Amino acid sequence: MADSVVRPYLKLVGAQIRSQAQYRTSFILDLLGQTVFTVLDFLTVFVVFRITPALGGFDLSEVLLISALAITGFTIADLVVGNVERLSFYVRTGLLDAMLIRPRRILPQLLAVDFQLRRIGRVALAVTVLIVAASAGVTDWTWWRVLLVVITPLTAAVFFCAVFILTATSMFWWIDAKEFSAAFTYGGRDFTTYPITVYEGVFRRLFGYLFGFGFVSYYPALSLLGRDDPLGGPGWLGWSGLIAAAVAATAAALMWRTGIRHYKGTGS
């Protein structure tokens, strides 16, 4: 039963991959171009440390671990559901209406219709940096730290997938909400790249705690490094990424269903 449900979407993704692989030179250039963006994300961290020996109370290796956890999760989410940020295009062109009349779930269709394999290079680079940063920053390896360093990028990916879908859902009511969506997706990625101790007051409480971005990489990194939270948070927050991902995924599912039910079509 499950195989019959999943197989059509896998075939759509496979068709996308084969079509992109037909033009190998273009695909390789796209792959390298996408990878460069992630290189720049990490280079930004090194540039910041050229003018300061510590950032928010953390040294370069510690910030690099926080960044690697966040960027690995984000790049996985971007690979899997990043296509959903083009929802306004699908609405305007009527493609969403065409998908709605098919006897398949609409969200997997949207994700499969323009799957971008070229983004896999960003994931590979982020995972490589994560392995290097964890090897350099974590000195006391235990079984639970190994488990934490594996599941944190995955929970971060689930969290960012939910953010992509949550913000894209706003386009059902506000068709030009792409910039609004990007403020939370790419803005959230940038927020989680650095320790939340560098942010102050309302901004930290709003994005770090209320929106949950602070639980994506900062607290798991503290547990991996064996450091106490300078903000006074308890040690169990190192595992709070699981809760944040579950809450965000539930909110995204509810918002998506609400958006689909209220969607009236393009009228064409």
From TrEMBL:
<protein>
    <submittedName>
        <fullName>ABC-2 type transport system permease protein</fullName>
    </submittedName>
</protein>
<feature type="transmembrane region" description="Helical">
    <location>
        <begin position="237"/>
        <end position="256"/>
    </location>
</feature>
<keyword id="KW-0812">Transmembrane</keyword>
<feature type="transmembrane region" description="Helical">
    <location>
        <begin position="123"/>
        <end position="144"/>
    </location>
</feature>
<feature type="transmembrane region" description="Helical">
    <location>
        <begin position="206"/>
        <end position="225"/>
    </location>
</feature>
<dbReference type="InterPro" id="IPR010390">
    <property type="entry name" value="ABC-2_transporter-like"/>
</dbReference>
<keyword id="KW-1133">Transmembrane helix</keyword>
<feature type="transmembrane region" description="Helical">
    <location>
        <begin position="63"/>
        <end position="82"/>
    </location>
</feature>
<feature type="transmembrane region" description="Helical">
    <location>
        <begin position="150"/>
        <end position="175"/>
    </location>
</feature>
<dbReference type="Pfam" id="PF06182">
    <property type="entry name" value="ABC2_membrane_6"/>
</dbReference>
<feature type="transmembrane region" description="Helical">
    <location>
        <begin position="27"/>
        <end position="51"/>
    </location>
</feature>
<keyword id="KW-0472">Membrane</keyword>
